[in-house]
Amino acid sequence: MDCTLEHYLIEGYLDGELGFERTLEVEAHLASCASCAEEVQSWRSVREALQKPRLYYRATPRLEKKIREGLPQPAREVAPWFSRWLWAGGGAALATAALLAVFFVSRPPTASSDQELVTSHVRSLMSNHLMDVVSTDQHTVKPWFDGKIDFAPPVRDLAEQGYPLAGGRLDYIGGRTVAALVYHRALHPINLYVWPAASGSEEAWRAETIRGYNVVSGRKNGFEFRGVSDLNAEELRDFMQRVTQ
Amino acid sequence: MTERFEQTVLPHLDAAYNLARWLVRSPADAEDVVQEAYLRAMRFFGGFRGGDSRAWILKIVRNTCYSWARKNRGAGSEEEFDETAHSKEERHDDAESKLVEREEGERVRRALEALPEAFREVLVMREIEGLSYKEIAEVLGVPMGTVMSSLSRARQKMREQLETSVRKEA
């Protein structure tokens, strides 16, 4: 055996945990080392078997129901941010009320639907329901929405800029059906939500982080755009700018 | 609070159940464990400071699995665990159809089920759940280097297990 490669590099390569340079290094090694190449190949076939859907045990609806029933039932008419205020409020009721008024006014109207966006994003990843139409071709994805929603979302392929289109689906955000377009940046999926804007004025991009996901929002060309991803905020903003050009 | 919990932690229910199902190896016990884990999670949720909610809930599920196992197996070691008692259901299926047993998938499932817990859990998290090293490290509460060496040994064990099963069949 004249293999000199550190073994952990093979594992890291298999797990997609190596940086760009290291990946190239391992690939060059694999081309010349039969035993490492064989190891990679054999694990990939084991992995393929492990990733068959029948080996992923899904929770039954009954379990979900039991868990939901076990949750404390909040008073539904009280908005959650309000009840959180009440909890945190403790003593000074007057001060709280004054602050509350300020809080209410300054609170962006879309905050709760941004939460919904992130929930939708997480669900789309969890349930293998990322896409209803799977295609890298914008001329396939765009017509797919015809007749399913009452607007035609702008669909652009950005493969050359490093954000290939992967497909689309319908989703339901803030009480309305929206178009969700799926793009990738390397291993990071991006959900781009699009729906017609109520107002014609443009709104500059703003970024926020919700439960560890980046959300970039803006209004352009008569559409509301929301991008959600675990991609870093700079790249996500770059993506949003390109996709709406 | 409840709403935020529903939005943050409930979407990971499949991941939670899958990990529990692989660790305790029985559907009914896995349901009990996950239900218990979600109750615990609800209690601790006030302390959750954001970040990776999947790793957070999986950590609680894993701890619940381990306390469940300690309670149900006594302080005994891994070897005392009676595997046949826990895979009866699948064996019954196989009696009906010998063909199923020959499937590659079934062989891999058995091999993974037969691995010691410490190896089984890292393989389930990495290969089936698709967690990164960083996330696995968070769930296990160990440094990333430890995750890498556990994974490496788990893969070695898994290969051996698969080879043994091939030899048995031959």
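Residues 144-169 of chain B form the longest helix (26 residues).
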